[in-house]
User: What shape does this take?
Amino acid sequence: MAPTAKSPTPHAVVVGGGIGGLTAAVALHRSGWRVTVLERAASLEPVGSGISLAPNAQRALDVLGLGDDVRALAAWSGTGGLRAQDGRWLARTSSTAAARAFGGSLVLLHRSTLVDLLVGALPADCLRTGAAARLTDPGGAGRTAVVSTADGDIEADLVVGADGIDSAVRTALFPAHPGARYTGFTAWRVIVPAPERPFEPHETWGRGGLWGTQPLKDGRVYAYGTARVPEGGRAPDDEKAELMRRFAHWHHPIPEILAAARPEDVLRNDVRHLITPLPVYHRGRVALLGDAAHAMAPTLGQGGNQAIEDAVVLAHHAAPRGHLPAALAAYSADRVPRTTAIVRRAARTARLNHLRHPALIAVRDTLIRAASRLGPNLIMKGFASIADWRPPQAPYAAGTNTPTGTGTGAGTQDRPATRR
Assistant: This one.
């Protein structure tokens, strides 16, 4: 009897080559899928500057064999914390205490560094840049999904919509959803050389906005500022001048950071979020992840972290030749409660750190200082309930494409959490 021909390897198409899409591609590739990543931009130049990876995302990257590479980039040592606009410390902690509370260190790195790590874990022929894509058929139990590109249609056993906050894939699946809404504040970001005078890493909550100054492993500094302003605004001259007007009178090292910034290096973006949650993150043979599924305010530092979690959980459930409808339903059941809770908590935190009324600011700062004096764990407890997430049992061994187990994932470690 002639041997039975092997069925072709199932094909997953990832629409979007950002951090969530690339992580999904790596995770699916390692679990046995043939993967194609379609990125509309001509090159993978990450939008934004820095990204903070908390222990929850690092554990997800452990599943892909990349967690230790990220941990090696940790730059924070010593003390740091939360400050008032005039420089007074509202709450202080140390990198050691934070690692103890969160189950690991917080690692700030340039987005391009993380993109390079992820691309390096993919086959060279799976990534197509300059490839705008449109979902024309989400597929179903009896048919493949179809993604259209300028070079023709691509049939896929699984499509991953990782095309960002204005996701066309999401719109195709949920046309009645209202989409992203303005949070009420805009954000500026910049990376500059470290100032000569030493400083402790900090986030400063002022009137109607905040500022953060954080070190990178390469000796530079990632800084960011936010302010409550009308949507769509731009500086009359340049964005560095706007930052100078808003923040140059704040405490050290903020004036030095601004002095070192070049106008062309300052990024400004209005911050939007999906405050109306999706009912599920899948339809047909399509799964959404990252900002396409649950864009959130950056006030908890969890946007990219949650996209990384999504990717690993999706690959955990979606075995290449498994029952895809059940797999995608399990993925939604795992991810919707947790990410919805974090989106809402991020929005509440944004309102808190963008207060404008002096009396409300005074009350807020007094409560933070009081909680800090009672014990740093009170300040860090909320974020610890996010950072202690652990991925479901991996269906494949690190460094291989060999399945090693099934696990359930649903309702085990991926529980709803709250604060940064």
